[in-house]
Structures
1.
Amino acid sequence: MRVLLTDRFCDRAKSTSVQTDYFDENVSGLALRVSAKGVKAWTLHFTEPTGKRARITLGRYPSTSLANARALALEAKSAVADGRDPRGVGNEMSVNDLAARYVEIHVASLRSADEIKRRIYRNIVPVIGNVKLSEFHRRDATRVVDAVTKRNAPGEAMKCFEDLRAMLRWAVSRGDLDHNPIEGMRKPQGSKPRERVLSDDEIRTLWNSLPQALARNPEHQRVIKLCLVTGQRVGEVAGMTRSELDLKHKLWRLPGERTKNGHPHTVPLTPLAIELIGKSDTEQVFPNPEPVAVAQTVYRVQDRFGIPHWTVHDLRRTALTGMAELGVAPIVLGHIANHRTTTKAGMTLSVYVQHAYEKEKREALELWADRLQGIIAGGAQVMSMGRGTR
């Protein structure tokens, strides 16, 4: 059937049989092929130099617009006129190609670059890497999400969907796609926020089991212990550098590019923390551990620790909860955790209160370190921060 194709016609076109070809009156040979299920694809019918009739697919509608399809068809017809095979002409970019460009050009500048790259190459590329952008369909996103969900990782599934959506939006902004095929899709529900806090007995058991449980990973042991001692994130601890440390003043100064919220953060170091940091000639305090590697190691050998399932992030929650039980004020806990929602929550705090609570942070962390060492030894009692404390 030959018609004057318009955007409105393409949007409403339906098949009258198993499949229907609507040939464009403007560009000979270009057709919108519509299946009985409503799938629409652009095809170009042409005659090879040998005289044999042939057909190639130029992309799917609406990922490939009418205007783009006409441009691709004319480019392919020009190749035929020059005696070249038009099958290599057109929008052949795949998800794998897009992922490589996205990671190199855009993701590399983000603070969470390593995690995003890991998720893309672990969960997205292996499943739909070979799918051409011109043929990308919503069900391809569903395939990615389903594969991750089957691993009982709802939080990871939600983040992978967000990564894919962001990558496709980036492609649209660059002109690699005319529109985002999964725009408007509901993202999968992530896992509920964890509330796990280790008990005193669990802390003792975990701490004392680390040398045997992670015998081949002494650096992982130190990272895990420092997370519990300082209450900081595993990524911040694992990435600690000597230039961030001021051991003379017992401080760890995290630059904004190394924190989750982008704001510089100072962590007072207790004697226990300094002992765990140790001394070395390398700039990286922990040359080998990556945050993801530490978390994966913990997940893989859960049965070695002698306590119910836990994650490295649970240690941060445990430390902050332990300090709260010792009477540390919420505003001080917010400064220790570098939570801007607590420390700069309102006009009064953000504008008028510029106090950094460094003294209070040190008192709280030292009190927690004393308590922690008592727990590990097997006999600590909870002591609140009264007026006379320290």
2.
Amino acid sequence: MANTRGKASPNAHTQRRLFASSAGYCQNPSCTEKLFNEVEGKRFLIAEMAHVFAAQDDGPRPNPELTEEERGAFENLIVLCANCHTMIDKASEAFPDAMMKRWKEKHEQKLSNMFGVLTFDDRESIRDVIEPLLIENKTVFDMYGPHIEEAQNPEGGAAERWKRKVLSIIIPNNRKVLSFVDANRHLLSDSEKSINELFRQHIDDLEAFHIEDVRQDSSRFPVEMTHIYKD
């Protein structure tokens, strides 16, 4: 999802917001394309950042009144698969800025509907929702994480497979869990609130490493998170 248009390109924080808002799917509501695919063990990233108003004045949907910073802002960007990005730029008259902004809104609503009800009256109900996501993440980590023996072979492909799993499963699941917990903060104990903040920092570090390629040690997943909302 790299872009090299100076200040019209999104900064690292905006890139992370865009990735999180896509949840791994093209933001064209009529498209169901996953942004991370794998064929015969090879991982392909087909996510592309598209400008609502053009990054340059001679581009599709130009708006000369915008500054470079405004052109690279979250509000002026949308995450699409390669096909949809090509389509909206090649036939820009058929895809005006208002339509593009509605796409983002519809995509957000679609994700909210997929997640289901976000607020609950009891701890057991919210636990039933987040537990499968936490279990899936643990299973992926146990099977593909950097601690496995195969990961020690730099030519074995394990690192690429782990990165794909992080981007396509773990990070989206983390975001879902965090959104559920934040919406049901009233059901957390004081100690669980602290655990959730540790989880939030872990998400930030993990995304910085795998999305922004920030090569620094990240905080570990707080294991106490696996017991959150358990009585």
